[in-house]
Amino acid sequence: MLLMAHARSAIHAKSVRYKVWALLALLLLTAATAIAWLLVNMRASDQVEAQQRLNRIVQGTGATLSHQLDSLDIFAHGVDELLALGGNVQPVMTLMVRQSNLLGDALILDGQGKVLVAARQHWRNGQVPRPLWVRLRQSLTDPMASGAPLRAPLDVEPQPMLYWLRPLSKAGAERYLLMRLPRAQWAAALTRGLELEEVEFTLENQDGEILLALPVPEPEPHTQPLPALSRAPVGHVARLSRKPALVAVQSLPKQGLWISASLPMDKVPNPWRMVVLGLCMAIAVFALLAAALWATVRGYLLRLRGMQLLATQSQQRLDQALDSMGSGFLLLDAQRQVLQWNRCYEEMFPWQKRELVSGRPLMDVLGAFSMQLGLGHLQLQAIKKLHEQLLADPDRPVEQQLPTGQFVQMKASPVADGGMVITYNDVTDIRLAAAEIESLAFYDALTGLPNRRLLLDRLAQATEQAYREGWYGALLFLDLDQFKMLNDTLGHEVGDQLLQQVAKRLRGAVRSSDTVARLGGDEFVVMLCELAYAEAAAATAAQRIGDKILARLNQPYTLGGHTHRSACSIGATLFGQQPQSAAELLKQADIAMYQIKTRKSSGLCFFDPQMQVEIHQRVRMEEDLRVAMAQSQFELHYQPQFTLAGEVIGAEALLRWRHPERGLVPPGMFIAVAEESEIIVPLGMWVLRTACEQLARWQKDARLSQLQVSVNVSARQFRHKDFATRVVEVLRETGISPQRLKLELTESVVIENVEQAIATMKQLRALGLCFSMDDFGTGQSSLTYLTRLPLSQLKIDQSFIRNMGHRHTDDVIVQTIIGMARNLNLEVIAEGVETQEQRAMLASYGCAYFQGYLFSPPVPLHAFEQLLARVPVRMEPPGV
Question: Which position among 269, 378, 589, 775 has the lowest Cβ density within 10 Å, counted as fewest Cβ atoms?
Answer without folding.
Answer: 378
